[in-house]
Amino acid sequence: MVMNAKVKASLYLLFTLIAFSSIEVSSKPLMGTVDPFFMTAFRFLVGGLVLMFFVDKQIETKDLLPLTLIGALNGILSMTSLQLSVAHSNASTAATLVASNPIFVSLFALLILKEKHTIRRYIGIALGFVGLIVFSLGMISGDSWLGIFYGVVAAVTFGLYTVLMGKYMKKYTPVSVTAYSTLISSLIYIAILALSGHFYVPSIGISEWGILIYLGVVVTGLAYLTYFKAIELIGTAQSSRVFFLKPIVATLFAVILLGESLSVAKIVGMLIVLFSLFL
Prior knowledge:
The protein has 13 helices and no strands. By secondary structure, the protein is mostly helical. The longest helix is centred in the last third of the chain and has 29 residues, at 206-234. It is globular, with a radius of gyration of 18 Å.
């Protein structure tokens, strides 16, 4: 029996959602023992290598440099900021902040691509910022303004990356441009860390290395692949809704697995952000 396209896409997205929602919870226990810069570089190196096995369209040489620079927005700036947010705040806080990136995608699409939005979308953008402010004011034990700052930076830079990468995803395929940009930018990241004397390979046990490999193979490799497969089946608009559910799932993981708590303001702020994303 042939599986229905929507059912198949739903299974792909379920895997993507669980993997993406586990980033902060999985990496939180490593904070203090694994350098956030090494963690991000290693994660994207492994993930990039995994994605290269699924490249379905070769990239023209002239496009490699811009793709690398755009990829650096994600693999270097955004995801390093996310790990620093996890290091300086609760996992649920970092997860919710980075998941607000669609707000900034809409904003950058307006500013850079001159896309026209409906009044409803403008209200959504404004409401999203209100939600982020309320959420940030609901700090609890384990949170810090520095962690919140890094979380917002992660969302902003990922939003910019998404808008700038759109042109190349249309020209090639999402898997191809992500594979090349991820792998090349990770190699540059490692080179920068090594040359600056900040490439620290951690002295950790098998279980910790297992987490790092999981973050690379599953989260950065396979989860991106299943997300793109879902896009091929049901389109970007429907598939992107998986990001709307990340704050809820990631927060549940943090509460259950890490014993984190939530304040009323954080819950209200999270709900406002989620509502704004649906507008």
